[in-house]
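chain below, 121 aa
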Amino acid sequence: MYPSDRKYTKDHEWVKIDGAEARVGITDYAQKQLGDVVYLELPDIGRTLIKGESFGTVESVKAVSDLYSPVAGEVTEVNRGLTERPDTVNSDPHGSWMIVMKVTGGADDLLDAEEYAELTK
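prediction:
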């Protein structure tokens, strides 16, 4: 159910790390809990994030929730297409990355797909 090429947080973000670069989004479980996503607030390029720090918000018809950085690093890209079409997160949560980061640390205690699936049972 959850792609095995990513790591996951207990806050329901996913991160796909490729060398020193990481793409970050929210999981299918998170989007189901939120309901229809209507708005995303994402950070500016160049912002440095500490692991666990809020980097933005996701607003749905049910709630507004913070987005938390699964690793430490610098934001190098922001998916502006998602800010224009936030509902894409509902139809393709694991394909809808929100930010790309240059990773500086903090990836060692993330969950693998099996551990995350167990967490969300």
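The longest strand covers residues 54-60. The chain has one domain: 7-119.
thats it, cya
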